[in-house]
Amino acid sequence: MELDLYFSNYTYVIIFVLFGVALPVVSLTFGRLLRPKNPYDDKLSTYESGIKPTGEAQIRFHVAYYIVAIEFIIFDIETVFLYPWAVSLGQLGWVGLNAMLIFILILALGLGYSWKKRVLEWN
Amino acid sequence: MSAYNANWSLMTPEIVLMILALVIFTLDFMTGMSRNKPFLGRLSILSLLATTVLVAVFNRETGQIGDMFVVDGFAMVLKIVILLGVAGVIAISMYYVDRHRDVYQGEYYSLLLFATLGAMLMVSSADLITLFVGLELLSISAYCLAGFKKYNGKSTEAAIKYVVLGGTASAFILYGMSFVYGLTGTTSLVDINEAVPTLFADYPYIMTMAIMFMIAGFGFKISVVPFHMWAPDVYEGAPTPVTSFLSVVSKIAGFGIVLRVFFVGFESVYDEWAFIFALLAAITMIVGNMIAIVQRKVKRLMAFSGVAQAGYLLVPVATMVSLDMTMSMITFYAVAYLLMTLGAFAIITLVTEDTEDDALTSFSGLYQRAPYLAIAMTIFLLSLAGLPITAGFFGKFYIFVGAIQAEMLWLAVIMIFTSIVSFFYYFGIMKQMFMRDPKPNDDQTLSVPKPVSAVVTISLVGTIGFGLLANVLTNYFNNLQWFF
Amino acid sequence: MMPVTLFLALGAILFCIGLYGVLTRRHIVVVLVCIELMLNSVNINLVAFSSVGPVANVTGQVFSLFVITIAAAEVAVGLAILIALYRNRASIDVIKHDLLRSS
Asked: Where are the transmembrane segments (chain A) (predicted)?
C-alpha cells in the first residue's frame, strides 16, 4: 500500500537520528574519561567572546521587539500566498498577476502606515 | 464558470467600499500625526451611504461569482441593514471621539469600514473559505475597536478577553468545518447540502459533532447562552459606540452567517439540527432576561438584553414551516432590532458620556433634562420589550405566530413569559428617567449634538413607522427571492 | 482503519491540549500560544483530509493557507493588545485582570 511505502521511507530518518544522537554522546563521554581535569574561576565563567560577562542571563526584552515581531509576522505570512501563486503563475496569467499586485499594494499601504507612525525607528 | 469570465460587477459595492476604506486609511496617515480629524468621519458616512446605493443598484438581481460569492435577496437586505447600521454607529462615534481626544480618529473610522467590508463578505458568501475570511475580517477589526481607548485599563482588558475568547470560538468553528470539508470533499455550501443526507446516514456521530462545534463557535459570535459570557464584560469595557457596533452590526452579521450556513449548507438535514437551536433559543431567552434584571450598569443591562434578543431571533430558525416565511420573519426582526437598538445606544452614549457614569442612575431625571430623548428612549425600550405600535412588537408577533404554526407551543410560551420578565428591567430605566430628579451636579438641560439627534430621530421614525405600516416591509420580504 | 484516522487523532489531541491551556493557563502569552495550537490542529485535519481523506482534493490545502494567515493576524492583534494591557497594568497575569465584573 502507498501509505506503508510512505512510512517505510522514514526508516532512513530514524537511522539518521540515532546516529546523530550517538555521535556526540559517545565522543563527549570518551573525552570526559580521557582529558585532564583542572577547573578554576575564569574557566567556569560564561563565555562572552573574551569579555568579562556582565548582568543577568535572563533579561526582560524591550517592548519594541514585540512590535518588530508583529511587523515581521505580516510579511512572513505574505510568502504563504506568494509561493503557491508563483508556482502556478503560468496558468493564472494576467488576472493572477493583477490580483497579486493588488494584494501587495494593500500590504504596502500597511507598511507605509507603520513607517509614518515611526514604528520602524528604533529608540 | 471560472473566475475569468465571472460577472465581477456583482461585487461592485464591496470593491468600492474597499477602495474608499483604503483611501480613508491612506488619507489618515498622509495628513500628519494629529488624532483629531473630524472630516474623516464625514467621509466615512458618505462612503457608507454611497455603498448602500450601489448595493441597491447592483445587487437587485441574483447571481454568483464561481460558487464563492453570491448575491441574492438575503445578501442585499442584510447588506443594506449592515451599512446603514454602521453609518449610524459612525454618527454616534463622531460625538464620542470629539470628547475623547486620545482616540486616533483615522484608524478608528478605517477599522470600522474594514469591519463592515468583512460583514458584507460574510452575508454574501457561499463557500466556507470566503465565509470564514469575512468573519475574521469583522472579528479582528472588532478586537482592535474594543480596545481602542488604549490608556484605559477597562478597555484593554475587554479587548484581551474578546481576543482570547473570540480566537477560541474561531478555532471551534474551523474544527467543525474541517470535518465537514473532510467528509464532503468540498467547501461550497450548495455542494455540501447535496452531500450531507447520505453522510448523516453513514457517519451520524462525526457529522453531529461537526455541527455542534460549528454551533458553539457561531453561538459565541451571536452571544447565545451558554456562549455569552464574554458579552457583558466586552460591552462594558469597550467604548460605547463600539458597544453599539458589536450589539447591532456584529450580531446581525453573525445571524447572517448562521442562516447562510444552516439554511443553504445543511437545509437538507433540517431535522438533525433544528432541535439544538430550539433548546439554545429557550435557554438564551430565559437566562438572558433573568440575569438582566439584576444588572445595575446600563451597558451590562443592554448586553443581557442583546443576549435575550438573540434568543428571540433563534426561535424562527428552530421553527421553520417554509423557508421564505422564516427568512422574512428573521429579517423583519433584524430591521426592527437595528432601529431600536441603535436609537437606544445613541441615547445611552450621550447620557453616559455626559454624566461620566455608566450606572442605571445616570438616567435619573432625563425627562426634565431632555424630554425628547426621554420619550424616544421610552419608545425604543417599549419596542425592545415588544409592546404594540412599535416595530419590535410586530417582529415578535410574527415570530410567535410562526412558532405556533410549527406546533412548538412550549417555545412560544417561553417567549411570552420571558417577554413579560423583560418589562421589569426596561421599566427600571424608565423609572429613572421619569420618576427620579436629576442629580444635583448634572446640568439641568442636556444639549443634544446634531449627529446623535439625527440617529435618534431616524430610528424613532423607523421604529414607529414599521410598527404602523409593518405590512409594507413584510409584503416586500414575502416576494423576495431569499436564496439563489 | 482509515489511514486518515491517525492524523485526526493527532489533530484531536492537539485541539484538546490547546483548549485545556486556554482554560487553565494564567499567562496571556501562553493562552495565545494555546489558541494557535487549536488552529494548527485544524490545519492538520484539513491537510490530512486533503491528501488521504475519503474525498481527497486540493481545496483543503487552500483552506489551511487561509487559516494560517488569519491565525497570524489574530496573534498579531493579540500581541498588540497585550502590549497596551501591559503598559496600563504592568502585569499580564489573567487572574489580576478583574476590572470588569458584574455588579
From this structure: 12-34, 63-86, 92-115
